User: Fold these one by one.
Assistant:
Number 1:
Amino acid sequence: MSQAGAFPPGKKITVVFVIGGPGSGKGTQCSKIVRHFGFTHLSAGDLLRQQVQSDTEHGAMIKNLMHEGKLVPSDIIVRLLLTAMLQSGNDRFLVDGFPRNEENRRAYESVIGIEPELVLFIDCPREELERRILHRDQGRDDDNVDTIRKRFQVFHDSTLPVVLYYDRMGKVRRVDGAKSADAVFDDVKAIFTQLLTTQASQGGNASSRRSNPPLCSVL
Ligand SMILES: Nc1ncnc2c1ncn2[C@@H]1O[C@H](COP(=O)(O)OP(=O)(O)OP(=O)(O)O)[C@@H](O)[C@H]1O
Ligand SMILES: Nc1ccn([C@@H]2O[C@H](COP(=O)(O)O)[C@@H](O)[C@H]2O)c(=O)n1
Ligand SMILES: [Mg+2]
């Protein structure tokens, strides 16, 4: 079914991409941002894990790819993100763990087309990331030494180039993810306070969204 027009025209929709290596604290910081700033948190990884748990059409394929630390086809993720955005009724979204590669970025642009206000990049050394993941203990199938190595490789080869793409557009805000979670959030809070203050001073209804997004092309 077409979802075209589901975002009211003229209404400002704020999207922030949250990117960082595996275990950098994306989910941790997103929870804090939700509490302080009223965003809806959409974790691409969580949406995929729900598909696996619900044993949906693509569940088995997604499970295998995640176990291998590989990326799931972009059309699947973008459809999940769009559905979650529309269902939320909110107009502020944190998109965690996305885009992970150039294909994700292009699929998002062509299907959803809401330009991110900024890209929060949580930067953290690899040794610290590995330590955190191996201590996380949330029963994730991909939190093992073999898969972690593959996830790092994907991050380096496919995700960092996307960060660089947005950096060239002046959209990246880097924070030092090696600090304590509260200290990282002090930096994150300053970034979001500035974003929302700027938006408020601009009237809050200027839209960076395409006027006629091709929402129906994958639905
Ligand atoms: N700044 C921090 N300092 C120390 N530990 C942290 C920090 N931020 C998060 N953690 C812990 O590190 C682990 C990974 O954090 P989190 O799940 O938020 O990362 P993530 O970027 O969402 O990871 P993934 O990409 O694997 O989903 C968790 O156990 C979390 O409690
Ligand atoms: N854009 C994305 C995001 C995630 N995946 C897959 O999910 C795994 C876990 O992601 P987290 O963000 O929760 O760490 C990831 O390793 C990929 O297999 C994806 O394909 N595309
Ligand atoms: Mg996470």
Note: The chain has eight helices and five strands.
Number 2:
Amino acid sequence: QGLVVTQLDIQPGECIKVKGKILSDAKGFAVNVGKDSSNLMLHFNPRFDCHGDVNTIVCNSKEDGAWGEEDRKADFPFQHGDKIEICISFNELEATVKLPEVEFQFPNRLGMEKIEYLAVEGDFKVKAIKFH
Ligand SMILES: C=CCO[C@@H]1O[C@H](CO)[C@@H](O[C@@H]2O[C@H](CO)[C@H](O)[C@H](OCc3cn(Cc4cccc(/C=C/CN=C(N)N)c4)nn3)[C@H]2O)[C@H](O)[C@H]1NC(C)=O
């Protein structure tokens, strides 16, 4: 089990910065934000090599424990061993994941009005978390 933060109260326009290092033999990692582990606004899941996906970011939502429709992104701006900072923000329409060179959007399917939950899982070592 990776890092889990609950009782957050992140409002639209605010951002969660997760800084850390991708393991050198990473198969995949995930950053989840939402209400709790069963209700996710965004499951942001870069896959180096897992579930049959190679170098693919899979995004999804989860409502009452049920996964939604997957959204596979075209870009894969990650490499094994990278030190990265991911900045997650949202509004009533969509969640945004900002990286230095590129950003990804994912629809706010559940219409969440705040983020209370953050979890980082898999082959990623969290160094710091900042809330702006
Ligand atoms: C083609 C067959 C049917 O279609 C597949 O059906 C699978 C099951 O539904 C989906 O997969 C599921 O997709 C979900 C999103 O939609 C979640 O990602 C879920 O994972 C949840 C989960 C998270 N976590 C923690 C975690 C997260 C990241 C890395 C690790 C560990 C790293 C391992 N490191 C090693 N070993 N060194 C651990 N555990 N489970 C995944 O199982 C596939 O996408 C889907 N593929 C396609 C093309 O459609």
Note: The radius of gyration is 13 Å.
